Amino acid sequence: MAGGEAWRPPRPCEDYWGEWKHCRGLRHAFHHYYAHGELPACGRWREDYEACRAWERGRAAAAQEALCKSERARVMEKQRISFRNSAGDSQISAYVI
Fold first, then answer.
1. Residue 68 backbone phi and psi in degrees, to 5
2. Which tens digit of pLDDT belongs to each residue from 32-90?
3. Residues near 33 by beta carbon (within 8 Å), at least 6 away in sequence
4. How far apart, in whole angstroms, are the C-alpha atoms of residue 55 and residue 49?
């Protein structure tokens, strides 16, 4: 990395564990099922937690790559949803005026 800094995971490992626990919770599962018609897929949070711990234990390059790939996918999904929502808002407002 630039400046001689060591790479760090995008989030602390405890964040991945907390997201996994939240995802598997009854309240979240009920809400997700009600809103989307299916149970939430929590496996990615668990995989990210395992990769983060593997990186902390031995600085494994495969774990680093897995975390980077997963975070990129998460950001792309968030941007895709955001773009879709903002595009829908502009189409709706055109009909309201």
1. -60, -45
2. 999 989 999 999 999 999 999 999 998 888 999 999 999 999 889 888 877 776 655 55
3. 39
4. 10
**Token pair belonging to 87:** 């595009």
Instruction: Please state the three-class secondary structure of the chain as a single string.
Output: CHHHCCCCCCCCHHHHHHHHHHHHCHHHHHHHHHHHCCCCCCHHHHHHHHHHHHHHHHCCHHHHHHHHHHHHHHHHHHHHHHHHHHHHHHHHHHHHC
Q: What's the predicted TM-score (pTM) here?
A: 0.73
55: region left, alpha or beta (phi > 0 left; psi from -120 to 50 alpha): alpha
